Amino acid sequence: MSTSPPKTTEAWTYTSPSTPRTALTLTTSHPLTFPPSNSSEETLLISVSHAALNPGDIVSLTAMPFFLHSTPSAVPAFDFCGTVLQSHNQARFSPGDNVICFPPLPHMLKTGIGGLQKIVPIPAKYCVRLPQGKKLIDGAGLMLAGCTALLQVRQAGVKKGDRILVVGASGGVGSAAVQIVRDVVGLGGYIAGVCSGRNEGLVRSLGADEVVDYTLHKDLPGYLTERFGGEGRRFDHVIDGYGNQELYKSCAGFLKEGGVYDAASIHYASYRLWDLLGSVVTIGLNILWPRAQWLGGTGRRFKICSLGDPGLEMMELLAGMLGDGRVRVVRDSVWGWGEVKEGFDVLMGGHAAGKVVIRVGEGGE
């Protein structure tokens, strides 16, 4: 006899845009609806063990107008993992299965769910099974950063033997990108990573052949041109997990003709709506402005990673890479359930080495 699902759960919620410290409130009675009415798709009730914080969560909290939400309150965190409690229209999953979850933004806007709630109802199509032998915490922070990096690598057309520059190589997206690029280019390829010198050991351990410490170079584009601008030293592509506009503007000095500068975003000075809109305008200009340098362009193609819903194929591929050791999640820090705001403080500081993870439930480590 199945247990009746709970009607409420504990969660960190918000009802209007503001900083995480101001917007977030811990409630013990966030409403749950499970099973969904009039739905024929498999839907899971998940006991969340860990959730990873992402810059997209900060954008949703601080800059996105709340009228875009269909619910009176919302929960942050796109990226989480946990254990199946119940399955409605059971097909792929059974109670007790450990899963990694990544609901896309439109689903979160419609339902208000997020990883910072103890129990989550979620369509099974947004979940993949945690690889055997891995702990739940190993999957925390894998999907959003990993799928972003994988899509960037695919968009740029990275291939075996390429020379690749990874910008922001110690961040969430960048640390995943270094590993995925290494898997693609093989031992015959070459990877240089841009990060702080304090993270050099980490980035080399992920597969980088060389590390450029941006803190040592006031003119980073100039240094990259000097170091990598010669014949046979330029990069085939640049994978930018940070969104360094100044590097893109000067990348002709170190990126081959025909090479792609693929950015996860364009970094903005703050998480205000106007800064976000300014980033969107810059992205549009990068894509549409003539590439000819004599017309004021960079002379190099720019692509932006627009992830949306990555789909099961990409999620399962990434989970497989976690399972066989080709990819691991780099964790900057792990925070308790009552320390969510402190975790956001670290993320908003802009210098986290890997993912900031919240311990939502018990176990999984």
TrEMBL record:
CDD domains: MDR1 (cd08267). Coiled coil: none annotated. Signal peptide: none annotated. Keywords: Oxidoreductase. Residues 1-20 are annotated as: Disordered. Residues 21-358 form the Enoyl reductase (ER) domain. Pfam families: ADH_N, ADH_zinc_N_2. SMART domains: PKS_ER. The keyword Manganese does not apply. It comes from the Eukaryota. This is Enoyl reductase (ER) domain-containing protein.
